[in-house]
Each structure stands twice: as C-alpha cells, then as structure tokens.
Amino acid sequence: MTRTLRFILGDQLSRSIASLRDAEPDRDDILMVEVGAEATYVPHHPKKIAFLFSAMRHFAAELSQQGFSVDYVRLDDAGNSQDFRSELVRACERHKPDRVVVTEPGEWRVWEDMQGWAEACGVPVEIREDDRFLCSRAHFARWAEGRKQLRMEFFYRDMRRRTGLLMDGDKPVGGQWNYDQENRKSIPKGTAAPPAFAVQPDQTTQDVLALVGGRFGDHFGDLEPFDFAVTAADAEAAFEDFLAHRLASFGDYQDAMKQDSPTLWHAVISPYLNAGLLDPLTCCKRAETEYLAGRAPLNAVEGFIRQILGWREYVRGIYWLKMPDYAETNFLDADRKLPTFYWSGDTDMNCLAQAIGQTKRLAYAHHIQRLMVTGNFALLLGVAPKEVCEWYLAVYADAFEWVELPNTHGMVMHADGGVLGSKPYAASGKYINRMGDYCEHCRYDVKQGEGSKACPLNYLYWNFMMENEDRLADNPRMAMPYRTLRRFAPEKRARIAEDARRFIERIYGDPAGTEAA
Ligand code: DLZ
Ligand code: SF4
Fold it and tell me: Which atom of ligand 2 is nearest to the CA of 433?
C-alpha cells in the first residue's frame, strides 16, 4: 500500500483540489503549514495573513471531520522551521511516506523551489496541475502561439465559446461580446450601495487574530475589525449576498468611486476565489442564472463573468507564459521610490488618501481604485515597478503573484512594454473627477492644470508624457495626447516640468526621489 503525504498550500483550500482527488482517509496523511517565510516574503497585510491562517485552520478541521489525518503545523508550534521546504522535510521524517503529492503553486518562486523538494525529502514529489483554473497553462500557451498580440478580448471570446457561458449557439447572448461601454455610469446623488457582507469571527478566527496581532502587528494594515468569510460555506453566503443585493447594479457602477464607500456594488469575492473557497466556474454559472431568470441585466452579468472567465484566466496565462523574465522588464525605465504615504495613507491628495486608507482598513480596493488611483499615480510619478508590485502583493487580501504581477507590472506600470495593455493607462485628475466625488473633498482643484492649487495629477500627467515622449509618442493609441502636447508652448512645458519637479521634491525631500529604488 502506497503511503502518500498530500501537501496543501494556503491558497489551495478546495476540497476538489487535484492533490486531494484520490485521497483515502485511512491511508494518506495531509500536511498544512503556517510558516513565517510565507507571511513575510513581502510584508503582507495582517488581515490577509489572518484570513489565510483562519481559512487554513477551518479547512483542516473540515478534512479531519471527513476522517482524514491532517498534520497541521501552527506558526508558533515548537520546532516549526518556518518555510515550506524544510517543513515538508520534517513532515516526511515524521510520516515516512512513499511519495508526496502537491498541486502546482500560484507563484514562480514557490514553483522553482518545488523542483528541489523531491531531492530534499528523498521521496518522489508528484506536482499536479491546478485544474481549478478554466484554462490550463498548456492551453494558454497554445492559444498564444503565433499571435502577434495577446489581447484579452480575443482570449475571452475563446473562453466564452469553450464554456458556453452567455452563448446563443455560436453567438454571444445579446449580440455583443462585451458591454463595458455600459459599465461606466456615475452614481446618482443620494444613491447608496447596499451594506457589505460581514461574518462574525468564531473562536478559531479569534485565536488566529491574537496570533497574527502578536507576530505581524507591525505590518501595514488594520487587523480588526475582521469580517472575512473563512470557510467555503460562508464564502458562498457572501457570494449569494452579492447576487441578491448588488449584482443587478454592479455593471452600471463598476468603475465608479465614492467618498467613504469602499466596496459599492462589488462582489468582494476575489480573496475567496484565489484561496480556493469559491469555484470560478460555479460563480460564473450562478451569475448567468441570474441573467436568465431576469433578475440581473446583461451588462452586469457579462461584466462579472468577463472578470473571472476572461481577465482572471488571461492574467494567469500571461504570468506562466512570460515568467520569470516578465518581472524584470522596465519599459519606461521608472526608478523612483514608492512614496512613504503608500504605507500610511497620510497625503493631502484625497483620491489617494481614500484608496490607501481603505486598503489599510480592509485589505481591499476595487479595480478602478487600484488601476486609476494608486496605480496611475505611481505610473505618472515614475515609481520603480518592483516597488509598486511589492506593495500590491503585500496589501491586498486577494493578491498572489500570478494575479498581482501582470496586473501591476503590465497593466498599471506598462513595464512590459505592451504585452498586456496596448498603452499605459495614464490619466489626469479629469478621469478621477469624472468617475466619482473624491475631487469634491480635496484641497486641490481638479480644474487647474498648473500652480500650487492645481491637482498634482494634472501636471504629473503631462510631465509623464514629456518624460516618455521617446518611448510612447509612436504608439498609435497615444496619438491624441501627443498631438495635444505638441501644441503646448515651450513656456507651458517648462512650467509643467517645474510644477512636477517641485512636487517630487516635496514628497521625497530630494529632487530625484530615487535613492532606495
Ligand atoms: C500568503 C500566505 C501566507 C501569508 N502564509 C501562508 C502559510 O503560512 N502557509 C501556506 O501554506 N501558505 C501561505 N500563504 C500562501 C502562499 O504564499 C501561497 O500558497 C504561495 O504564494 C503559492 O501560491
Ligand atoms: Fe485626486 Fe486631484 Fe481629485 Fe484631489 S483633485 S482628489 S488629487 S484627482
């Protein structure tokens, strides 16, 4: 009888995970480990660490109830060597398995390390494909082969055809593949989003909160209040709450931002999907049912399904196709430090204070806040992509490198030179003003382009265009702003550069802002 040790990582909390599929309660052991190395390779938000530890403990308890023997190493257990490889070696000494079975990890650094696990343990290590994703790494590579451009839209159409989601034979339901144009409405004055879903911490979560507060309380982010779901059942309840109360308006207000309203009509299920508590295909099918039953409009349901079936699968495909070189590119040669206020929220630019403040409180921001507020500002300022990536990976509860890196390095920072997005998403304050009410509460004037009262994003935007003229002016999708820039008188260019220089000196305390980057 082959004795198997099945090692489950913190973002593999799915009963259907490949490494558990053929597990036998009376024959196999299951290993799960809380390790310092994973909690600190970037300074993760305490809420994120607590979410994963509590979800891991609940998952282990469920497996035990099903009769499995789970060897669960807690962070403060005596002898915990605090990293994956040495904990696996120790577990092999305890259990003496004939083989180890794991599922491929979500991050390149773990994948690379995993290649050495068999030798370290002295038993074969079978690495199984993570088939919780709807597009395998091999399928994505085949899709990408021979294409000049890897555009999400075409990948997404392919995935719609493959899954049959929102399809009418071989045509998209409603006649259009993508209803993004209808997903940019502003929130009417006086309209408030339904309350966010919250779960009360049970004893297991409270134990974890005490542990995490003690060990990682110095990391950026508020540990409490903690209201994440930590079981598959509660994650499903959170998703059902979204379907019942927010999905119908999700499409309309998907890109909107509102003062002191962090989650709006968003589902806030990405931490659950990425840790394995929710299944992506099931979520898409449930949303489709809401459309078919007439309870949610097509622009909302298509928008939701596109995020999961299209974007989420696409960025993962890009990650595995392009790593490890992908992380090293720096198309715009950006080399400034991340401003320290990203780790405090202490800034007089209201849009940034709002986005960073809620990130600190919740370990969550929605996609436009990430892309067009914190991301756009870092892009305009010329922050080194690695600094920005580390921040996103640390502060968001849903961030694992497979999803974080392409989004930040590619989409936000354009550091990949256009693999992911055909142009940088640079925007002035005008965009932020159009998409929400942050500017109404700001000490800067979004209507002014120059001078001390002017919205800094306005002159930083043109300064970015000037600084990157050599790299971007030939991009056909940038033709419009460069046509405008060419009409600027030399004096106007000089004033913008001077405003930007003064701003950079103010936030860094030195003119270049590059020392530590
Ligand atoms: C993010 C994270 C943290 C904070 N802690 C753990 C842990 O203690 N044990 C564990 O198995 N996984 C943890 N994770 C998730 C891993 O970092 C994740 O599985 C890898 O990044 C591979 O995707
Ligand atoms: Fe942000 Fe500028 Fe608007 Fe202030 S005025 S909230 S800095 S975009």
Answer: 3
Residues 8 and 32: beta-carbon distance below 8 Å: yes
Give me the amino acid identity at 84.
F
Q: List, for residues 404-455, the tens digit of each pLDDT value.
A: 999 999 999 999 999 998 899 999 999 999 999 999 999 999 999 999 999 9
What is the best residue among 11, 33, 44, 114 to mutate for testing ligand 1's pocket, by most ligand atoms within 8 Å of CB? Answer: 11
pLDDT at 184: 79
Instruction: Phi first, then psi: give them for residue 33, nearest 5 degrees.
Output: -135, 135
| Å from CA of 11 to ligand 1 middle | 6
Distance 177 CA to ligand 1 centre (A): 36
| Ligand 2, atom nearest to 350 Cα | 6
Contact 448, 455 (CB under 8 A): yes
| C-alpha radius of gyration, the chain, whole number | 24
Closest to 33 measured CA to CA, from 14, 8, 15, 58: 8
- Helices H / strands E in the chain, number of each: 24, 7
In angstroms, the CA 355 to CA 111 distance is 32
Q: Give helix 456-467 / helix 479-486 axis angle, nearest 10°.
A: 100
Q: CB of 38 within 8 A of CB of 216?
A: no
How far is ligand 1, taken at its centre, from the CA of residue 88, in Å?
14
- Residues 101 and 7: beta-carbon distance below 8 Å: yes
Q: Which amino acid is at 464?
A: F
Query: Using a 6 Å CB cutoff, which residues line ligand 1?
Result: 9-11, 33-35, 38-39, 44, 49, 52, 105-107, 110, 400
Question: What are the φ/ψ torsions at residue 82 (nearest 5 degrees)?
Answer: 70, 15
Phi, psi of 260 (to 5 degrees): 55, 25
Instruction: Tell me how far the alpha carbon of residue 433 lies from the centroid of ligand 2, in angstroms.
Output: 7
Residue nearest to atom 7 of ligand 2 (CA): 349
Of the candidates 460, 391, 448, 454, which has an alpha carbon nearest to the alpha carbon of residue 424?
460
Q: What percent of the chain has pLDDT over 70?
A: 99
User: What's the rounded Cα separation, in Å, for the pair 380 and 291?
Assistant: 39
Measured in Å, residue 195 CA sits from the centre of ligand 1 at: 30
Q: How far is CA 299 from each of CA 25, 162, 246, 279, 364, rounded to the nearest angstrom?
A: 45, 21, 13, 22, 24
**Cis amide linkage into residue 188, ω under 30° from 0:** no
How many CB atoms are closer than 10 A to CB 161?
12
- CB 287 within 8 Å of CB 243: yes
Asked if 424 and 73 touch (Cβ cutoff 8 Å), the reply is: no
Task: Quickly state the pLDDT bin for 189 (edges 50, 70, 90).
Answer: confident
Find all residues with CB under 8 Å of 381, minimum gap 6, and list them. Answer: 336, 339, 460, 504, 513
Q: What is the pLDDT of the chain when averaged over all its residues?
A: 95
**Which residue puts its alpha carbon closest to atom 3 of ligand 2?**
439
Sign of the alpha-carbon dihedral angle for 499, 504, 510, 513: negative
DSSP 344: T
